[in-house]
Amino acid sequence: MSRIEDHALIGDLQTAALVDRNGTADWLCLPRFDSAAMFTRLLGGPEHGHWTITPAPAPDAGDTDPPQAVRRRYRGNSLILETEWDTPDGTVRVTDFMPSTVGVRGDAPRLVRIVEGVHGRVPVRSVLRPRPGYGTVVPWIRAEGDRFAALAGPDALWLDAEPPTTDENSTLVSEFTVAAGDRVAFTLAWHPSHAGIPPLPDPRADLTATAAYWKDWTARCTYTGPDRDAVVRSLITLKALTYAPTGAMVAAPTTSLPEEIGGTRNWDYRYCWLRDSALAVTTLARNGYLDEARAWRAWLVRTVGGDLDRLQIMYGIAGERDLAERELAHLPGYENSRPVRVGNGAAAQLQLDVFGEVIDALDTARRHGLEPCPRAAALQVRLVELLERRWREPDEGIWEVRGPRRHFVHSKVMAWVAFDRVIRLIESGDATGPAERWRGLRDEIHREVCERGFDSVRGTFTQSYGSAELDAALLLIPVVGFLPPGDPRVTGTVEAVRRELSTPDGFVLRYPTAGPGAGVDGLAGEEGAFLACSFWMADALALTGRPDEARELFEKLLALRNDVGLLAEEWGPQRRRQVGNFPQGFSHWALVDSAVALARGTGAFVPGQRAHLPSAVQRSLRPAVVA
Ligand SMILES: OC[C@H]1O[C@H](O[C@H]2O[C@H](CO)[C@@H](O)[C@H](O)[C@H]2O)[C@H](O)[C@@H](O)[C@@H]1O
User: Whose CA is nearest to atom 18 of ligand 1?
Assistant: First the structure.
């Protein structure tokens, strides 16, 4: 079984595949991110579907032990993956990609794999075992001239293979040899089974168009400070999580990659969280990507605008509301981490922080040049009217705990953010609302948080009112402008979180999941260090005048990325492996934000970056710290 970080991501802005270092695509949902997977080997075995292309194993080697890739990279700033093997017979390269725009993808989403001889003559084997329905369906494979169709109910997968291919027990096998300069292409396309035969693919034209697409997209990045390669790779990853037809964004393209190997903390992230998407869009907007912010805003207005009383904290990528959680009992799970879940029960939770994140994202995009939208402005006012009725309630909070609701301090802080930003919107003249009343409420929330959410004996904010536990989300207090970074309540909280929530290797847990403070989330087992929280610690250190410690932590976090720059949700300190869904939007926007924050801290010139901190924070910082 490949480690989580052995995978690279390819995608077409509607779905994505994971490819491991052995040349195996072991996760692919078609036609959308949240469709049932056609390849589910990631959460099971080869019988659950995969597509492997590698140098042919030596005759006595088992099928389960193909040769390791020796080099792997994305082609420039793109999502085109190149994997190269050196073998005794020579060197071979496999180029994997999914044509990356709605226009290029057309009606038939497809995965293209081009095998290229680099030198020598290398025997290669392709084994394509499509198993729709998360590995439950053996499709009917039939030859249609030179093409193969794999039919399974509503789905048809069409393989166009240049080398000779045979059907061996519903598995399409191709064995061939590539010499230096040879290029042999495969295209696997999804098509509705009722829709006849898809057009013949043109893999070379697809490659050219996809390369041009990513070149153009990455050229729009405005960040020019340090660690630019890491920043651009993270921005590409965020873009890959967007669903182009609607403007929504998945939290990650996978389900049930475990937060603890062998554990039960396994969730489906293939949906659009208001929180995750708002935070990612905020990062994209700050770095030159207003089109993505505009598209997300349109998705938001369409999705939540009509029925605010039934506001959900997450939706399907086209705005669907029914995300009922269920378990796929036939799958053993990643390294026996059961259950495998699809759907997500957190959709029914109350999470007050999302009001602040959504309204702050719209505020940030507007301040970075996104044109006003009267419908979005009206939506923000209605959201705050709703929040006015509900902010005093306990909730499940940013971490979607499955234990009892609490008065989470972070939730109340983000309620303050929602009122603060909407007041600014009204003051700008782009919306109308009871600004005076909301100023009063904003002050009331601030007072309440400082009275009930702060432990004056320990000198730290706490996870919830009156609790003894800490929470790494409290690191965001200075970032959102609730208090200035130099305030002793902020520095005390940063210090306390660092002391009590750090792992031995210096990364940061969300909250305690072991020891006396454990149990708040109502879940069995433990989890790793949460990578976004670890980046937030770097930001907090930078903001509170500790740039060297911030840089040291940031460098350590960069070193956790895999060979192609990707991060899962968490880092398992014991096994020293990435854990959780992969790649995770939270980790990648947090990486970008940290790079920008650290660049500002060093006074690095970051053209195109406007100061994004609220004015209250900017005033409290030394001039050199704000670009
Ligand atoms: O910890 C329990 C919860 O874990 C998941 O939530 C996490 O992922 C979300 C998507 O990235 C993120 O918005 C949230 O902050 C994280 O805690 C899971 O989705 C929940 O169902 C589960 O209760």
Answer: 267
Residue 513 confidence (pLDDT): 82
Q: pLDDT for 223-255, tens place per residue? A: 999 999 999 999 999 999 999 999 999 999 999
Nearest CA to ligand 1 atom 13: 276
Give the mutation target among 400, 513, 586, 589 for probing the ligand 1 site: most ligand atoms within 8 A of CB: 400
Q: Is 586 in the pocket of ligand 1 (CB under 6 A)?
A: yes
Residues contacting 377, CB < 8 A, separation 6+: 425, 430, 431
**Ligand 1 centroid – CA 400 distance (Å):** 5
* 260 close to ligand 1 (CB < 6 Angstrom): no
ipTM for the predicted complex comes to 0.95
Structurally, at CATH architecture level, domain 220-397+404-625 sits in Alpha/alpha barrel (1.50)
Q: What pTM does this model have?
A: 0.95
Instruction: Express each pLDDT in 156-175 by its tens digit.
Output: 999 999 999 999 999 999 99
**Closest approach atom of ligand 1 to CA 510:** 17
- Fold (CATH) for 4-216: Beta-galactosidase; Chain A, domain 5 (2.70.98)
Spans of all domains in the chain: 4-216, 220-397+404-625
**Cα angle: 382, vertex 586, 446; to 5 degrees:** 45
